Amino acid sequence: MEDVCAEIITIGDEILFGQIVDSNSQWISQQLSLAGIKTTRKTTIGDVREDILTAFAEAESRVHIILITGGLGPTKDDLTKPLLAEYFNSPLKINDEALSQVKEFFESRGHELTAINRRQAELPECCKKITNRLGTAPGMWFEKEGKVFVSMPGVPLEMKTIMTEEVIPKLCDYFDTPIIYHKMIRTIGIGESFLSEQIADWETGLPENIKLAYLPSMGQVKLRLTARGENEEYLKNQVQQEIDKLLPLAEKYVYGYDQEEIQGAIGKLLLKYGLTLSTAESCTGGYLAHLVTSVPGSSDYFQGTVVSYSNEVKMNQLDVKEETLIAHGAVSEETAKEMAEGIRNKMKTSIGLSTTGVAGPGGGTEEKPVGTVWIAYSDAHRTVARKLQLSTDRLLNIQLTATIALNLLRIQILKNY
């Protein structure tokens, strides 16, 4: 079966200038993939007539589907709609249904429909209107010699609603798309190259219709299996069989699947074993607790945190000994352990987890350069610590420390409970 290919065009100077982040393209390509449609190119164009028209023509020559976001407002700098009218040689005309919906939108909010907002109901005569129930700019569907153009607002919530409710179902009806099934295997605690070596024979033995992609991120590597075929249930079973072959090779690094994050996996483990957690943070400044509490229901197992940035707080709130700080310093194995024990005792939790380090960019010494971090885990039977030597980037060090600390927690729970 031939691939059905799409190109995404985002329009707006604000994207090129870096004033906003284009999150739309990533989300759209994910949804297209789930529908069996392959995204082959993403293009960002400024508010320039010639550039936009050229992008339309080039995309039409390459792919079956052209998805456009942005430039649908009622002001003069919003060029997408008039240029689509020009491209398809179809004059703009008031669409009665669109006008009724725009009028209702404003009246429901206590506003009158102004002349400029009335222009939102002007659409190229040749297009099919796509209802935008969350905003005033309708989407537009164009067909030309087997190709489809779809124009949508750039506001993410409006675009996502239109895509989910209208565009994806219409595209699946219009095109004969293959079934594409994705499964994400999430690993932590092993680098991409080491993981690749460890599972090389398994990767070589994958069936021809299943492709593997390595997606490294913050202290983690996601393995994405993509299977193509004509029967979804068959593909799911086929992928699961390959996962069953993989696990004996890398099970200790696998913490979850698909959209599950490490903090979610930790929450499940704590609930499974009836454990509670508290954290003591220095270099991470509360980021570790933020990750833990980003999971719905985390109040069932997380008691609280102490951000002990100063030595005084470490001593007064966590019972870190003054002699420990004098002899070994705040960034040390001994201090990390006493912090983890101190928070566990203070919060009366099953487990205490601590972080202390030199996040940077300043504060490092020859003995303890920027990126030197200690993390510790403590329960009623043991306290263990681990030294990390990270980067010179402050934010990266904070994020990596929290991720690695959560993995230390995961390892210790699996080992001891």
Name a few traits of the molecule:
417 residues, alpha/beta, Molybdenum Cofactor Biosythetic Enzyme, Chain A, Alpha-Beta Plaits, Maf protein, 3 domains, six-stranded mixed beta sheet, five-stranded mixed beta sheet, 16 helices, 42% helix
Walk me through this protein's architecture:
This protein is of the alpha/beta class. The protein folds into three domains: 4-174, Molybdenum Cofactor Biosythetic Enzyme, Chain A (3-Layer(aba) Sandwich); 179-257, 2-Layer Sandwich (Alpha-Beta Plaits); 262-416, Alpha-Beta Complex (Maf protein). The chain has 16 helices and 17 strands. The strands form four sheets. A six-stranded mixed sheet has the order 2-1-3-8-7-6, sandwiched between helices. A five-stranded mixed sheet has the order 14-13-15-16-17, sandwiched between helices. β10 and β11 form a beta hairpin. The chain is elongated, with a radius of gyration of 27 Å.
